[in-house]
Amino acid sequence: MESRYWLVSLPAVDGKQYVYRVYAPEDALPADLFWDAWHCHDESAFPRACDLFDAASIRRVG
Fold this sequence. Notes:
Layout: E1 5-11, E2 17-23, H1 30-42, E3 57-61
């Protein structure tokens, strides 16, 4: 079985974009993908990411 994933890019207060790989089915809700990536970032040592859904870039890979 081939793995499918999404790339979720979050802008942060340091001006950088942090990109996270989220494994989810093709019919996953964009909001769920966003929150998975945001919570992963929030638990890291990186500068605070923007928590606005509209600021994220989400794209399916694979």
